[in-house]
Amino acid sequence: MAVVLSDDNDRLKTMPGLTDKQRRFVAEYAQTGKAKHSACLAGYSEATASQMSTKLLNNPKVAGYLRELQGQLERDREGGTMVDGEVIDADWVLRESVRLYKGSMALGDMRSASGALDKIGKHRSIGAFVEKHEVTTIDWEASIERLRRARDAVLEHDGDPRAA
C-alpha cells in the first residue's frame, strides 16, 4: 500500500534533504515498522538491507521525517480507515450521503434520495432514528419475599398438601 500524504504538508511530500531511496524507506517503514523489508522495497539490495536500515534509522534527517510521517499516519488512522489516500469515517459517510441526496433529488430519483436521507438521519451527530430502550432492574429480594408471603398465605388458607 502506498503512503498518500495530505495535501497540507508539502514538506513531508518532498522530504527535502533525502534521496529517493531514503524517502521510499521512510514511507514504507512508517506504515510497516519492518526495517529490512522497507529497505529492500526502497531499492537497497537484500544483502545490505539490514545494515542500511540501521544506518537509515540512525540518520537524524530520516528519523525526523519518519517521526513526522508516523504522526500524520496515526492522526489519519484515528479518524477512520484509509482508502485510496482518503480517510473514510462517519463524517465522510455523512458528506457523501448529503451529496448523493442532493444529486438524487436533482434527478428526481426519490428511491436513491430516500436511501441517502435514511443514512443522513442515522449519522451519530444527527441521531434522528436512535432507538431508545427502557431498561428496568428487578429487586430480586423484594420479589422473592412477595412470593414467600403469597405461598405462606395459600398454605395457611388451604393447608400444606405435602403434610398429608
Description:
The chain contains 8 helices and 2 strands, in the order αααααββααα. The chain has 2 domains: 10-80, Terminase, small subunit, N-terminal DNA-binding domain, HTH motif (Arc Repressor Mutant, subunit A); 89-164, no CATH class. Helices cover 64% and strands 4% of the residues. It is mainly α and 164 residues long. The chain has helices spanning 10-14, 20-32, 35-42, 49-58, 60-78, 90-107, 110-122, 140-158, and strands at 81-83, 86-88. A hairpin with a 2-residue loop joins strand 1 (81-83) and strand 2. The chain is elongated, with a radius of gyration of 32 Å.
Please bin the fraction of helical residues: 55-70%
Strand content: under 5%
Give the uncertain stretches in residue-range form: 1-9
Tell me the number of helical segments per DSSP (H or I, 4 or more residues long).
8
What is the end-to-end distance?
82 Å
Cross-sheet strand order for the largest sheet: 1-2
- What form results from the Cα inertia axes? elongated
Largest sheet: 2 strands, antiparallel
SSE ordering: HHHHHEEHHH
User: Any idea how many domains?
Assistant: 2
Which structural class do the helices and strands define?
mainly alpha
Number of strands: 2
Radius of gyration: 32 Å
Q: Residue-averaged pLDDT, rounded?
A: 80
Task: Briefly characterize the structure.
The chain has 164 residues and is mainly α.
